[in-house]
Description:
This protein is of the alpha+beta class. The chain contains six helices and nine strands.
Amino acid sequence: xxxxxxxxxxxxxxxxxxxxxxxxxxxxxxxxxxxxxxxxxxxxxxxxxxxxxxxxxxxxxxxxxxxxxxxxxxxxxxxxxxxxxxxxxxxxxxxxxxxxxxxxxxxxxxxxxxxxxxxxxxxxxxxxxxxxxxxxxxxxxxxxxxxxxxxxxxxxxxxxxxxxxxxxxxxxxxxxxxxxxxxxxxxxxxxxxxxxxxxxxxxxxxxxxxxxxxxxxxxxxxxxxxxxxxxxxxxxxxxxxxxx
Length: 244
């Protein structure tokens, strides 16, 4: 009886020990998972080679306000680029303008001097890898080799609004057409309406962009966007996004 009483007394301690060991094991596994999946961790350093994760857009938005961290990400990736001079001042100061010197991350831009901001360019690199090229392969069996654009930097307000456009700091890019390897041109002004592969491709690209950029505006938004996609990395309260 004395032995049984001792076992009964020890039982709560054994239970708590087992619980503590389970929590310790879970904590070790969680730390290992975090190390293996930095794309999901807001505080982990952004890398262009990482897959998209829960924290990717948060990191890209943060890069738009941190020139050094953004350009360092391109330096670590080995991507060639030209950093363009700072333009403008005040609310129209653009300090992250850059041009990629190869098409390893983003298809050749036409015209080539658009020079979107570093954070937008980083988002475009992931967009190209995860959205544009997979869709081009799926619908056409080939890659996109050129992107036609309507520019990046433009010190102005949003049309019909007093709010400052993200173009005012080059934190935006307008894409108007995609050129495939065989020379096929897919333009929003001509091919947006669904009914063939061109329209389906453009809609797939728009839909796939929504998890990456802060703002995605398409011809479905309004007549002002009938001929292009607008992408930007705007920082907004609570991280809300716009996709239309």
